[in-house]
Amino acid sequence: MAKPSTVFTCTACGATQTKWSGRCEACGAWNTIVEDVPLSAGPAKKSLGPARGRRLALSDLATSEPEPPRAASGLDEFDRVLGGGLVPASAILVGGDPGIGKSTLLLQAAAAFANQGLKCLYISGEEASAQVRMRARRLGLAEAPVKLATETDLRAILTTLEAEKPDLAIIDSIQTLWADMVDSAPGSVAQVRASAHELTVFAKRHGTAVMLVGHVTKEGQIAGPRVVEHMVDTVLYFEGERGHQFRILRSVKNRFGPADEIGVFEMTGGGLAEVANPSALFLSERGTPAPGAAVFAGIEGTRPVLTEIQALVAPSPLGTPRRSAVGLDAGRLSTTLAVLEARCGIPFAGFDVYLNVAGGLKVTEPAADLAVAAALLSAREDVALPPDCVLFGEISLSGALRPVAQTENRLKEALKLGFSSAIAPERSKLGAPGGMKVRQMPDLTAFVGEIFGAG
Predict the structure, then answer these.
(1) What is the three-class DSSP state of 304?
(2) Is 99 marked within a binding site?
(3) 21 CB contacts (<8 Å, ≥6 apart)?
(4) Residue 171 annotated in ligand binding
(5) According to the annotation, is 102 in a ligand binding site?
(6) How far is the C-alpha of 309 from the C-alpha of 295, rounded, in Å?
(7) Strand ranges (E), 275-336
(8) ω before 284 within 30° of 0 (cis)?
(9) In which residues does the motif RadA KNRFG motif occur (predicted)?
(10) Does 431 count as an annotated binding residue?
(11) Is 387 labelled as part of a ligand binding site?
(12) Closest C-alpha to 102, from 133, 126, 80
């Protein structure tokens, strides 16, 4: 293996040469030529070798640079999920099930930003221009100043973006793009990675915000390599059940705002309408008190959201009873059932158990454990819970109730919607507003004994 050639550099002017000399031929300085140590050791074709790159300009952490300005679209729910508005030079990835409304949402967002004065480009790789215009007319956005194109060639898209210099570019979708320097079909891992990298680098260099639409797999994850989610600044998921008119835009990663923030929309004939008070909407179909229903005061991102958790417990004719959970983690349901049987002596062995979150919302917060246990016990004992009561608290494997965060915000939201009492774990930082009666429980056994009269 050939030894890499030694490089000598002048410390005065930075000129390089292949041999040492007493005087620099570029600037004329004496005794300034030094031998460079290679950046890395190894084979010449597999390592950096002796070649030098440019030196970076360093800065201190304490800087007086202002935060990047945000552009508000006027869609409050959309701006909330972005962290307060659109940040220039940001890369945003939006994923969701087919037909859930991703293209509708982003076309409405593009029109809203364009009406605020931003130059917006909407580039579709899945639909023809006539189809996008048809959707715009149906949504009442035909007069919005949004530029439209249909293309899948990445080189042509980047050339157009460089010439137009838009403030926002929406690419629908990243799986349809192809780069001519990658020898694979559109939608493959290599093509998706290369396309996402080029568009993200373009956004950072030219100050253009880029929104990418991504397909999802059967497991609900964005299709393609996970490195795409690391490249971008923000990852949003558009969720919802086909049978419900509600749609949830959830932030799972955001470098410019809080993660796990949600925006709630309602699918109507004229597009997606914002829902300013999702708690009232999720509880709007709640009628007379019935066994198996409990109201959970949860936190989604920075906002409190009240939802109804419904349970059905019925005798099972099967040897292995069924366990079904919609909107909740099935593992937490199994854990709650095990704690009720082991710590409270309430068996569910011969019963089918069905659990559902009303309205199509997906609850991932551990604070829902107490509401889940209350709904299960209410359904099993055929006893309705008080209609003016909300519940929240995490259940440990020992049966103890653990306090959860933002208790005061949960209680304020419940009081605003007409609830007058709450059940929470002991040692919770209440700060309860006036008019709200809070009962604190140390463990699940005490809760069962006080509410259902059994210990």
Answers:
(1) strand
(2) yes
(3) 33
(4) no
(5) yes
(6) 6
(7) 293-300, 303-315, 323-326
(8) no
(9) 253-257
(10) no
(11) no
(12) 126
